[in-house]
Amino acid sequence: MREELLSIIEKNSRIDIKELAVRLGKEEIDIVNELQKLEDEKVICGYHTLVNWEKTSIEKVTALIEVKVTPQRGQGFDRIASRIYNYPEVRDVYLISGGFDLLVTLEEKSLKDIAMFVSEKLSTLDSIISTGTHFILKKYKDHGTIIDEHVKDEREVITP
Amino acid sequence: MSLPLNESVVNIKPSGIRKFFDIVSEMKDAISLGVGEPDFDTPWHIRDEGIYSLERGKTFYTSNAGLKELRQEICNYQKRTQGINYDAMKEVLVTVGGSEAIDIGLRAMINPGDEVIIPQPAYVSYFPCAILAGAKPVIINLKAENQFRLTADELLNAVTDRTKVLILPFPNNPTGAIMERSDLEKIAQICIDKNICVMSDEIYSALTYKGEHVSIASIEGMKERTILINGFSKAYAMTGWRLGYACGPAEIIKQMTKIHQFAIMCAPTTSQYAAIEALKNGDNDVRLMRGAYNQRRRFLMNAFKEMNLECFEPYGAFYVFPCIKEFGMTSEEFATRFLEEEKVAAVPGSAFGDSGEGYLRISYAYSIENLKTAMERLSRFVNKLRSEKHNV
Ligand SMILES: Cc1ncc(COP(=O)(O)O)c(C=O)c1O
Prior knowledge:
The complex is a heterodimer.
Chain A: H1 2-11, H2 17-24, H3 28-40, E1 61-69, H4 78-85, E2 90-95, E3 102-108, H5 111-122, E4 128-135, E5 141-142, E6 145-146
Helix pairs in contact in A: 2-3
Chain B: H1 7-11, H2 16-26, E1 31-32, H3 44-55, H4 68-82, E2 92-95, H5 97-109, E3 115-120, H6 126-132, E4 136-141, H7 152-158, E5 163-168, H8 181-194, E6 197-201, E7 226-231, E8 244-247, H9 250-263, H10 269-281, H11 283-306, E9 319-320, H12 331-342, E10 344-345, E11 347-348, E12 360-363, H13 368-391
Parallel strand pairs in B: 1-10, 3-4, 3-5, 5-6, 6-7
Antiparallel strand pairs in B: 2-8, 7-8, 9-12, 11-12
Helix pairs in contact in B: 3-10, 4-10, 5-6, 5-9, 11-13
Bound molecules: pyridoxal-5'-phosphate.
């Protein structure tokens, strides 16, 4: 049931235990126990909400920053990664294969905030060789969800 | 001026569904539980193959029986899911939906007056197609107490020395009933003893929620007397592509191909290319969709339990078939009032044959959110009817 349970709550973490039990054909207690286990094992890392900030009056700017670094003896990329992800304004840090090493995403109130972060904090870290900053202009799809999608049932209302 | 009209066509009653459709269409903001097609879009990689085939200029007729590669993939599919070996060159015909296969299959097998056994409740096409083929339809009324499965006794009672074909419609639309191996073995024995051919409509085979679907053609001695019908509409959410197929004995497929050749030419080329992709790389899509349907099925069964509405547990297709006999109305009255008073459209069971009277077909090819609203309304409606009955 793990895969099915996770796929349901990955899309809707607010669904109640009773409904989960019914849909998966299990007892409620089994669901509760499994969720507890998944949380303990850190398989479930959080219950976030996908927000389309564009629709609010709150300004948000998201940047994807390519970072090239010199890996450190004995610690590879982990140490430098942790120096970056410990900044609260950093949203994601991924180790990447290809032309650069780390992909960092950042969400701030303005372009200026991001520029400040990159020039003052990120670039000044010891082992950083270079950075390249890309701003997101429009989100079409996020976390597997098409933003602002209006689905209309195109089917005939009654068919055999 | 009197226009030429064929009498057997004129005499065919329009589908009971049509009648209901007209009422629903008048009504704005009704929610429907009335569709017989998936709510999912065709998986993108399948659509993409269709588009790609157009880009490459694959816009011509295919061979009458269908693209060889598609027929081969169909054989592979039947081999891996049912263990049946079909010859792609002689025993497979690609058709315009399972619908066409039903029609031309009967036309290829039936002589005037031959009897075709149709277990009901069942999909609306078998009866008229049998009539148009010149057959005498013999109806078996399946029973809720048998979970709407076909039993050996019921079949034996319907067989005469004119019986040519048994239509075997499982997993069933509208009941959701399935036939398991042990059920099929008894039916197979009778067909062999009495020399009856089976037309097995397995269009919902991929949507089975208790073990895996078993085809009667996989049972010893049955491949040579079964026309197996399947298609892409339900399993891969491809209703609009109009693609299905028939597998069966070479002699029958040859005659079906003849009708198909003259009446249709070939199934849509774009759809055939997309279907190859579906069979090659679509198993996981089917698995995910089946999982989603199964969750909805359980959700509905639980909703019925909570409102105390009698319903046998169906293990196939995407329909549930609750019993509404306690309210003392016909299915049509019930469905009409449900629509008028709660704005929810479901199809009266009687549209699928007399034995569907007293039942309602509810499709779960809808999102859980949709089904939730519909079940709240059904619960309110059922309570209202119960209190009305009490107060009389
Ligand atoms: C039992 C059954 N058979 C056959 C069909 C025909 O499907 P298609 O012609 O789309 O393959 C349907 C469609 O609703 C069905 O329910």
